[in-house]
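REVIEWER CHECKLIST
Item 1: Sequence provided? yes
Item 2: Single chain? yes
Item 3: Sequence as submitted:
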Amino acid sequence: MVLPERGKNTSEEFYSYNGGEMNGTSKMMDFLEEPLPGVGTYEDFNTIDWVREKSRDRDRHREITSKSKESTWALIHSVSDAFSGWLLMLLIGLSAGSLAGLIDISAHWMTDLKEGVCLKGFWLNHEHCCWKAETPFENRDTCSDWRIWSQLIIGTTEGAFAYILNYFMYVIWALLFSLLAVSLVKGFAPYACGSGIPEIKTILSGFIIRGYLGKWTLIIKTITLVLAVSSGLSLGKEGPLVHVACCCGNILCHLFIKYRKNEAKRREVLSAAAAAGVSVAFGAPIGGVLFSLEEVSYYFPLKTLWRSFFAALVAAFTLRSINPFGNSRLVLFYVEFHTPWHLLELVPFILLGIFGGLWGAFFIRSNIAWCRRRKTTKLGRYPVLEVLVVTAVTAILAFPNEYTRMSTSELISELFNDCGILDYSKLCEYVSDFNSTKGDDLPDRAAGPGVYTAMWQLALALILKVFITIFTFGMKVPSGLFIPSMAVGAIVGRLLGVGMEQLAYYHHDWTIFSGWCSQGADCITPGLYAMVGAAACLGGVTRMTVSLVVIMFELTGGLEYIVPLMAAAMTSKWVADAIGREGIYDAHIRLNGYPFLEAKEEFSHKTLAMDVMRPRRNDPPLTVITQDSMTVEDVEVIINETTYSGYPVVVSRESQRLVGFVLRRDLIISIENARKKQDGIVSTSIIYFTDHSPPLPPSSPSMLKLRSILDLSPFTVTDQTPMEIVVDIFRKLGLRQCLVTHNGKLLGIITKKDVLKHIAQMANQDPDSILFN
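Item 4: Structure as written out by the authors:
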């Protein structure tokens, strides 16, 4: 988005007093010499004026720069103003990293609490409880200090009753956690539900949603995110962590006046906060910056790029220092594959990309259809009941299968793992000949009973994950989509990888294997297939490309696998785009009716500004305010009878020559303050938007001058301007509205909502789905 310099009003704005009277006329009242609280701000569910906000910031910066030469104190103020941005990034990184560490530690403990408790201290999770336990390596997941519920309650882990008791406790804990989560969201912070990324993306485009990034939302989202993840629902904490980080950024902005009073500057900070959120979610500072740039940010200048990277680094290292032993290591799923991939393996990698694109398109359509239906079904009208039902179904179906009973992050880590000599999981139960082992490298081997058992368990887990995630995403609890999508892809990738591995083992003499995979060689790495499949499914759902590959690289530490990752990510995007152009976040933006103008889509229809502007041919005339002939009462009648966010100011109704544009909110605040604080302002007082006014008889009421709240340089286009150009102007300048003229005379107005409705209509979509301006 490119923001031009808005023209400044250099005319003399005020008359000076002389002996209690004004020079020129004694009736001119101009009380706006000092800015009024509220003037220049925006109402809830409205779009900011990017051009005006950037113009204000440039004026503020010029004033500080000019004053810095006058005194030492002014110079110090100038330096502190320049440094405040970096200080704010430091605070955002520290707060986002600290909260992410708290969420990570708490979620691990409460997830393990569903299965048992530590005798050394109930606050320890399973891993920390058994950290120093002296147990054989193959039994490293059990220790004397950890007690599962059946062992704690009835003293045994064997038998049907012990299994049923553990099953019951697992479901009860899951229901309790989800009940607490949805109750807190419903009762204290309704904005704390969902992923938050669609709303963050809309806010960064200039939309105002009061309270969405407030302190109550931050507190409740932090608490309920732990509860939702611990309940075992098919969701992740990665998307909501972006919301948490942006809440931190928004709250900390109030410490610095240049960010507190300027909506455009605040959105630069929120872009950096989003990068910090992804950084703490995945341990991927570079990927976080690219995600913010590619996916969520609307205005991203170069200085924001470097500040985002700084905030992301601080957040990642803060998280690591708080929880050095959990999944918050430098990489979330560290992998160490011992076999390089072969060029012929690009074929199955591309097949994984095709699956990822198909899964992404299927998920988006199904989830959006369910979210629409949710508004009309009983479950939708009763969010607490919906969450409890979905949690109960998830827990009941998940417990019998060890791959769905474990947390999704642990499942992905298991699937990414390359089997070594010391691995004892079912996925690594091969028929081995250790005489042929060289170091850590194991040759391709025949699958044993454990591998076959794991394959059908993973197939069942895949079916559950595919369908239950559709109903989970969008419920009234914090719910991220990154980890569930990666889990679906990782399962499919591991299944395909094991299939390729066994194919190469039993048919190494086939032409496709003969050149690079001889008998007894370590050729196929199933864990690599799982990693590529995870990237493919995540890309199919979100339509991420470059940022996805970088995140996966930082996530796993596998630099040499960028080409397979890129091949799968690009294929999944192409396939998904061929079915539907929208990613999941854009689809939810459109579902909620937010006024988001997508910068990536092309508008190629041959329509003109006159086809979109209001008023239309059979509509009432455009509501305008004249520059020097309307009274306070006339303007108040217009304000009360209309709901427009602003009004064009013209010379007269007859000429319709444009003077400027005034915002509704500024008018209301200015008139209310004039009535309260200035004598002589009554309903019959004339409002002037001009530099000078003619002298009036002494008996006339005082006049009210409001030129200082008038935008003297509103953007205008002619009625014959192609809508392709108009849409481009709205995208690149971030406009709220554009006035339409013909030969200098005002004809109509085009708002951002009008543009979005027109785009929807041209795409054969419902234009009434755009709810806000």
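Item 5: Key structural point noted by reviewer: Residues 5-29, 434-439 have pLDDT under 50 and may be disordered.
Item 6: Recommendation: ____
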